[in-house]
User: Which sequence fits this backbone?
């Protein structure tokens, strides 16, 4: 009798979970830790398993009242855990998007999360693009504030781990495939970073520089050469679905030129200021 009752309760619980269509990763038995890549998350093998805690800070925007910005920090050193795809704190799994962490949900086998609206390369929010009115000069803090005023449900691409905006197919890649290259200013040497694209286009990037290159949709890859006599090269495989972002870096601490391919969601956010400063210089030089 007891055995039959237990089986019945188990079936009712399973039916209840299925009916709601949503479950957290706690039921999946994830290992507490931080994931450097989406693949680590899928395989439940976080490469960072050192003890850590999460610092909470209340979000100020009225649209996000009652929610918190999260910062995972190592327990021993109190240093922020950087360069990760996401983390699991023992209760929920989180994804990093536009410098914020959001809890991941599973709905009918699809990963998703609620986050700020997308900020496109012009600095306008996607809502503005959909309405056909991109205001000139909407950059930086203003654009971010507009993005924060929206709560957007993103799905997570099962192959790449990239967040997908619900209007992405309309917003992205209207003119072939795109490659965005940028250089930030923080901790960078003040000397130019020189590189070539496909041995024909030559660039010299000072800190806070930006360029967006459009290629025919049949172009599958480009070669970027850099370093002394352009002896180093990076092959970037282009994607019709996602803009590709490359970050130039010439740090003060090691003085070594680097080209780093970053996640689309990271690049679209980090390149905002370099693009703004680049446009400002171009306007002043005109």
Assistant:
């Amino acid at each position: 009798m007891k055995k039959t009752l237990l089986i019945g309760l188990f079936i009712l619980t399973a039916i209840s979970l299925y009916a709601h269509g949503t479950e957290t990763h706690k039921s999946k038995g994830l290992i507490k830790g931080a994931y450097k890549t989406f693949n680590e998350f899928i395989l439940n093998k976080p490469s960072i398993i050192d003890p850590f805690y999460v610092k909470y800070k209340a979000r100020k925007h009225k649209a996000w009242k009652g929610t918190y910005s999260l910062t995972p920090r190592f327990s021993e050193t109190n240093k922020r855990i950087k360069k990760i795809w996401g983390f699991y704190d023992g209760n929920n799994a989180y994804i990093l998007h536009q410098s914020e962490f959001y809890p991941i949900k599973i709905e009918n086998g699809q990963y998703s999360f609620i986050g700020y609206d997308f900020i496109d390369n012009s600095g306008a929010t996607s809502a503005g693009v959909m309405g056909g009115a991109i205001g000139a000069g909407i950059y930086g803090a203003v654009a971010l504030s507009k993005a924060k005023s929206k709560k957007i449900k993103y799905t997570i691409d099962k192959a790449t781990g990239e967040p997908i905006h619900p209007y992405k197919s309309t917003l992205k890649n209207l003119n072939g495939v795109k490659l965005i290259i940028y250089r930030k200013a923080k901790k960078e040497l003040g000397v130019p970073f020189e590189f070539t694209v496909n041995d024909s286009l030559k660039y010299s990037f000072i800190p806070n520089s930006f360029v967006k290159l459009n290629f025919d949709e049949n172009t599958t890859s480009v070669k970027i050469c850099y370093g002394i006599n352009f002896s180093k090269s990076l092959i970037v495989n282009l994607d019709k679905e996602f803009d590709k972002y490359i970050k130039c870096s010439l740090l003060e601490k090691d003085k070594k030129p680097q080209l780093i391919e970053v996640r689309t969601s990271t690049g679209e956010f980090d390149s905002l200021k370099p693009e703004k400063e680049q446009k400002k210089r171009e306007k002043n030089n005109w």
Notes: The two ends are 86 Å apart (CA to CA). The first helix runs from residue 2 to 20. The CA atoms of residues 15 and 112 lie 22 Å apart.
